[in-house]
Amino acid sequence: MSRPIAKTKRTVILSLALFFLLFSLSCQAAQFVTIAKDGVNIRKGPTTKEEIVMELFEGWPLRVVNKKNDWYEVVDYEKDRGWVYAPLVRKNDTVIVNVKKTGNMRSGPGKNSPVIAEVERGVVLTRITVKDGWVKVKHSQGSVGWIYKTLLWPQK
Question: Does the model's pTM come out above 0.70?
Answer without folding.
Answer: yes
